[in-house]
Design brief:
The chain is built from 14 helices and 12 strands. Helix 11 crosses helix 12, helix 11 runs antiparallel to helix 13 and helix 13 runs antiparallel to helix 14. The chain is α/β, with parallel strands linked by helices and 376 residues long.
Length: 376
């Protein structure tokens, strides 16, 4: 199978489409993939990889992170076998804001002749500018040998509407392998592809009875793609574009540092490891952090609950810049829980707490599915 993977560029095209496996929807692209094939990701990777694996019937191995809460390269190496098609690294990981060792993972992928996808969803419009500003950001892009695809969510720190992402491939051959071509489709092709074909081939509309896409979505994404273009054009010339995003990055990186300091000043709390970017996760060995989260939610804050360890995180944005010095809500919530422990009415602390303590993860899934099914 290694020889087949080396010769088949379509295999390399299965690195990503957003976080779905790119090229998976194309006829013939699954000629080598069956139930035995697998991808390996750290526990800190986004849950969308689980969704993709379930959709396409690919075995998913989630490997525990190491003591620094980053991908355990040694453990991933031990799990690679003849059926492995993909490994993933995050820059940074969604739970704790910590960057995986992309260079080590890249070397591992290159030597193993498998795909390596870098999840740059959160960091895509922060880390490049942070590195230029002098922050200690390790290599994470195509300068790293072994990286075959990168995903960046524009709708996060790029600031367009929700649902806009960019998938980058190391070369055109990998990208071409993601194309879906239906030659007898009776519906007109997307306007953008029409214009290119008519311009370059000088062909008539009669020849355009086919459908072509490089993406998992089709027409529904056109408005979102245009929103990216207009948002970036609004920044003006390139120097204004870079200056604008650089200033945004500087502000949120500095605010992140001040938030970390404010949390450290509250003795009942601890920060999970050392965040590399603008996500700060924190927990407590003294009180129930999920009860703290419920109180903060009642005051208008929106933080995400985490487990292993039980904690919550804040994703720092420009909205936090004017309120960064005010930790009153957090201090009050900590003291309330410390003096009067117990869930508040309508809070989610019991659900999160129970899920975190259950050793049987199937039971956790059933609990959460039943809860969501009854709530929506």
């Amino acid at each position: 199978m290694k020889d087949e993977k080396r010769k088949d560029v379509s295999w390399q095209g299965k690195c990503s489409d957003t976080v779905y496996i790119a090229g998976s929807e194309a006829e013939g692209h699954f000629s080598l993939i069956n139930e035995a094939c697998s991808m390996i990701i750290p526990e800190s990777a986004h849950s969308a990889y689980d969704k993709a694996a379930q959709y396409f019937n690919i075995k998913l191995w989630r490997i525990p992170v190491n003591k620094d809460f980053i991908a355990d390269v040694g453990a991933i190496r031990r799990c690679i076998n003849r059926n492995t098609i993909l490994i993933v690294g995050s820059t940074p990981g969604f739970p704790h804001g910590i960057i995986d060792s992309i260079e080590e993972l890249g070397e591992l992928a290159f030597s193993s002749e498998i795909c390596f996808h870098v999840d740059l969803c959160l960091g895509g419009f922060v880390l490049p500018f942070a590195r230029k500003l002098g922050y200690p950001i390790p290599p994470f892009d195509f300068s790293v040998k072994g990286v075959t695809s990168i995903l960046a969510d524009v709708h996060k720190y790029g600031l367009p509407p929700k649902g806009t992402s960019i998938v980058l491939y190391r070369n055109h051959e990998i990208r071409k392998a993601t194309a879906v071509l239906v030659r007898t489709h009776e519906v007109n092709i997307g306007h953008f592809v029409m214009l290119i074909m008519l311009h370059k081939l000088n062909c008539s509309w009669d020849f355009l009875h086919f459908f072509l896409t490089f993406y998992f979505l089709t027409y529904s994404c056109e408005v979102l793609i245009n929103s990216i273009l207009f948002n970036l054009m609004a920044a003006g010339k390139q120097n204004q574009f870079v200056a604008g995003y650089s200033e945004n990055t500087r502000e949120i990186m500095e605010v992140s540092k001040r938030i970390q300091k404010g949390i450290k000043d509250i003795s009942e709390l601890f920060i999970v490891e050392r965040p590399d970017m603008t996500i700060v996760a924190f927990g407590s060995n003294v009180i129930d952090i999920f009860e703290v989260n419920d109180i903060l939610s009642s005051k208008g804050w929106h933080l995400n609950a985490l487990q292993r360890p039980n904690s919550i995180h804040i994703c720092v944005t420009l909205q936090h810049v004017p309120v960064v010095e005010d930790f009153k809500d957090l201090r009050d919530a900590v003291q309330t829980v410390k003096q009067n422990p117990g869930p508040i009415s309508g809070g989610l602390a019991p659900i999160y707490g129970a899920a975190g303590k259950m050793p049987d993860r199937v039971m956790v899934q059933e609990l959460l599915v039943d809860f969501m099914d009854a709530s929506c």
